[in-house]
Design brief:
single chain, about 325 residues, ornithine cyclodeaminase, domain 1, Rossmann fold, eight-stranded parallel beta sheet, 9 helices, about 35% helix, about 25% strand, ODC_N, hormone binding, Ornithine cyclodeaminase family protein, ODC_Mu_crystall, NAD(P)-bd_dom_sf
Length: about 325
């Protein structure tokens, strides 16, 4: 019988520090050529939804093996509700069964925020304390917690399309993160004095422009990960330093980067540095100005996280835990 690890089990087996380690491992595997993964296949549905299919093979190391993620993303779900529903299949996991199914929504939520936290740890100023979040859903919440793990966040501003959703986010933050949140009436207001900006929306047209940005900041742009979506206006990419999870994937799926290249704001080749090539002990935000980490999500992240979650589950069973 196939083992299935549901969302609550996934979240019980992994913490922020482990997530940071796994993010670094996944990006290093990718950037060192240890992963076979094609570009994501995206199928558009007729109900404001997309289906993504992401297979990969990790060639060597502790996370070696095949895996396949299939997920349906529904846009416009209520704030705090699940937008990603699907499964990650992990093959040849000899410790348990030949195939293990892991909840894709939970893994996506955790690994996406962890990727941004890993980039922030490398690229944001060490004393960055002012965080702006654009968006109010699960990724907004996950990013707030992830940013707290890597920088001394003391001030949070939020903008979203719904005032009610912003109020719910602020109440959640006060309860779970012990941080007051300033609710802003525009994205420009939210980011005005920010050290770190996280964009976590499903915007189909730009919500953030170059003129909105402070002189120095780090941006994690994660919400627009498929063609037809765009959070950052292409003019954001003038006079910035761009980092990505995967250059090839970003140039295929990120409308803002594609338009920036077309307009000559970014070079056609060598437009970005992959985060997996950076040294973990090197903090790069030294009078750099504005840095952007643009991520669209990689199958290698899902495989690394899922295999580690399976191992944590096996260890919990051996230690007599009641997890099922």
């Amino acid at each position: 019988m196939m083992l299935h690890l549901d969302g609550s089990t996934v979240k019980s087996l992994i913490n922020v520090q482990l997530s940071l380690h796994l993010s670094e491992a996944a990006f290093r595997l990718h950037s060192s050529g240890q992963v076979e993964q094609p570009l994501r296949t995206v199928i558009k549905g007729g109900d404001n939804a997309l289906m993504g299919v992401m297979p990969a093979y990790i060639k060597s190391g502790p996370y070696q093996g095949f895996g396949l993620k299939s997920v349906v993303v529904r846009f416009g779900e209520a704030a705090g509700g699940p937008s990603h529903m699907g499964t990650i299949l992990i093959y040849d996991e000899a410790q348990v069964t030949p195939v293990v199914a892991v909840d894709a929504g939970a893994v996506t939520e955790i690994r996406t925020a962890a990727a941004s936290a890993h980039a922030t740890r490398l690229l944001a100023a060490p004393d960055a304390s002012r965080l702006a979040i654009l968006g109010t859903g699960l990724q907004a919440r996950a990013h707030l917690q992830a940013m707290q793990a890597v920088r001394p966040i003391r001030y949070v501003s939020v903008w979203g399309r719904s005032n009610e959703a912003c109020r719910e986010f602020a109440a959640w933050s006060a309860q779970h993160c012990d941080l007051p949140v300033s609710i802003c009436t525009s994205a420009a207001e939210a980011v005005r004095d920010a050290d770190i900006i996280c964009t976590t929306t499903a915007a189909r047209s730009p919500i953030l422009f170059h003129a909105d940005l402070p002189v120095r900041c780090h941006i994690n742009a994660i919400g627009a990960s498929a063609p037809g979506f765009q959070e950052l206006h292409e003019d954001v990419y003038q006079d910035i330093t761009l980092f990505t999870d995967c250059n090839r994937s970003v140039l295929a799926a990120s409308d803002c980067v594609i338009k920036a290249v077309q307009k000559g704001l970014l070079p056609q080749s060598g437009c970005a540095t992959e985060i997996g090539t950076l040294c973990k002990d090197e903090i790069l935000q030294k009078n750099r100005g504005i840095t952007v980490f643009k991520s669209v999500g990689l199958a290698v992240q899902d495989l690394v996280f899922s295999r580690e979650i399976i191992r944590q589950w096996v260890a919990s069973r051996c230690n007599g835990s009641s997890l099922t």
